[in-house]
Amino acid sequence: MDMTRPAPGGAAQAAAVELNGAEIVVRCLQAEGVEHVFGYPGGAVLYLYDELCKQDKVKHILVRHEQGAVHAADGYARATNKVGVALVTSGPGVTNAVTGIATAYMDSIPLVILTGQVPTHAIGQDAFQECDTVGITRPCVKHNFLVKDVKDLAETMKKAFYIAKTGRPGPVVVDIPKDITTHKAWFAYPDTVTLRSYNPVVKGHPGQIKKAVQLLLKAKRPMIYAGGGVILADAALELTRLVRQLGFPCTNTLMGLGGYPANDRQSLGMLGMHGTYEANLAMQNCDVLLAVGARFDDRVIGNPKHFFEEPRTIIHIDIDPSSISKRVKVDVPIVGDVREVLRELNQQVEATRAQPDAAALANWWKQIEEWRGMDCLKYDRASALIKPQYVIEKLYEVTGGDAYVTSDVGQHQMWAAQFYRFDKPRRWINSGGLGTMGVGIPYAMGVQLAHPEATVACVTGEASVQMCIQELSTCKQYRLPIKIVTLNNRYMGMVRQWQQFFHGNRYAESYMDALPDFVKLAEAYGHVGFRIEKPADVEGALREAFKRKQDLVFLDFVTDQTENVFPMIPGGKGLSEMILV
Amino acid sequence: MRHIISVLLENESGALSRVSGLFSARGYNIESLTVAPTEDATLSRMTIVTSGSDEVIEQITKQLNKLVDVVKVVDLSEGEHIERELMLVKVRATGKDREEMKRMADIFRGRIIDVSDKDYTIELTGPGSKLDAFLKAIDRAAIVETVRTGASGIGRGDRILKAS
After folding, report:
1. Residue A387: helix, strand or coil by DSSP?
2. CB-based contact B59 A134, cutoff 8 Å
3. Which of B115, B109, B94, B105 shows the shortest CA–CA distance to B138?
4. Collapsing DSSP states into helix, strand and coil, what is residue A61?
């Protein structure tokens, strides 16, 4: 505690005021322009909550479980490109938050998670609600801090926000012992922060970009493969401009949906394990591949050995050098911010007099259209049972394709990705990397708070939705009128699908017995619930639900139990080894 | 292939666990790891001996660079470098072995740094292979205890690893 010496520095010194640690944290959040903090109180953070309730700039959203707090902050960040903020107490508060933190880490989402800690003198004593937060979170954060001196608090907060949102974004944990929140220090929020050990590259190497342009213009069978990096870098416009300029086909990963308009003719849809026939075959058979903010994930290219069987030249733009040549050897790596690099690429493509090889391109498109003609997403439209795909198609129609759609994890997630045609970035909010069931409702909460006027739908299943069902209570408290579209097939559908294909139809523990009556459950939380059992009622129910602008509506669609997600590339297989319907 | 990687990192609590955690989480092999502060007390210098294919080593250096606490990384084995390791070995030294042990220490340019009526403690410095050779050269039954630091390395001539 240093109450005598003002903070060093010119202008900062003049502005410095003496505050306790809790006040400092709240002032830092205000200075960062944080509008919402998602959290849950407890012993170690009581002083912080005391300060939060004395002001109204930063609004606190009380969740019902710390996992929900981090997911909601994560959903908020995904829908806005702002840093999401969560606040949890020590011990179980932190361990409950870990799933949320790991989820954000896998998808590179900028978060700052403030965690209470036992007082400094009690650390290491196995105190009540103590856990080694920095140790537990270390493998699933971009960085973390334990604040041991109140004088370091403001600068640590500044660093946390800076690290979270720059470079390849990610979650940053700031662990604050309880006594630090009462100690006093001179406070002035630093305008900037520099770390000698952290200097993310922004501009791409001009020589590499030049090489890329030459390769692209010479390509006979080009392909553009765009991932979540396009969304994170807010580079959808730049990508769209490049794709249109070149006239090349473009596919988006699960994380990249909306990075290029799905309704455009040049879009081949999503690629990967449940990607379209045309996208996967174009990916496998192209001669020049431009990968933009994507990481050749196992769910995207399948088996790398099979991928290598066809020769192709790969250009890879990514902000993270460690993503380049990790699973797939790359010929032209370009490290830099995706938007900056795409701008440079666009300029060079415009400036050059060379044009893509029109004849070769026409041949390539002819081939692609043949593949597209397979209509790989077809399903039985005459079924007497509700087909899950049909529900998503109707959801798309009823919302005019303009909703923010969150999802949980499983079959419903894949159908939403395949059938809701995202034309805009940041509209599709899901857990791609970690595959966390339970994210759907808290994601929708974060999105709705970020965009109060927007239409927000949560596509989920009867298994996933129960993993964070308690957040229906939070939705009531803050009047969040999200629409929950549950594709209820009484199975953990994706588990069942794998058991059907690879485990001899032995459905071990994948049937959901003793389900709650979701209509009554929604009503018990003070919401509206509909149960829909016939295909003819699907559209009407959706229209009615979305008409209720003020209400959360829980739509329980009783769907065909045996429907599977197609196409499918079995694990360990290659892109051209798809199972079709 | 064996590589010796040198890392300059912030001398902060937890920095070591970030590095060791990275190696265990991603399944990289660590043969040895040494770390101590540099002449600038805010920085630590770490030497990691590891092995793997070129692809694995490329990932290791990239992943190390990605750690926020890491200032610089260099693969010393990519160029001319020197590496040294320190070993303290306590050996039985009684009867006629006592003179023999002293001679062996001299041959290997070791120094006897502690003496009791039964034992010598010998300090030996050199590349790991020299320390191995010493242990091989003496009677195995005479070895009471060995302590090795793991390798430290430095580039030759103008190859310098500094913060700026």
Report:
1. coil
2. no
3. B105
4. strand
**Among candidate residues A416, A418, A415, A397, the one with its CA nearest the CA of residue A406:** A416
Measured between CA atoms, how close is B64 to chain A, in angstroms? 9
pTM: 0.96
Of A163, A197, A325, the CB nearest to B70: A197
| DSSP letter string, A476-510 | HHTT---EEEEEE-SB-HHHHHHHHHHSTT--TT-
Active site residue A494: yes
The whole-angstrom separation of Cα A3 and Cα A318 is: 46
Nearest CB to A197: which of B13, B62, B71?
Answer: B71
Sign of CA dihedral B134, B137, B140, B142: negative
Closest CA to A258 of A288, A237, A281: A237
A308 is catalytic: no
pLDDT mean for each 10 residues of chain A (581 residues): 44 73 98 98 98 97 98 98 97 98 98 98 97 98 98 98 98 98 97 94 96 97 98 98 98 98 98 97 98 95 92 97 94 98 97 94 98 97 97 98 98 98 98 98 98 98 98 98 98 97 96 96 98 98 98 98 96 93 87
- The yes-or-no answer on residue A273 being catalytic is no
Write the Ramachandran bin of A154: left for phi over 0, alpha for psi from -120 to 50, otherwise beta.
alpha
- From the list A159, A178, A394, A483, the catalytic residue is A178
Interface ipTM = 0.93
Is A3 catalytic? The answer is no
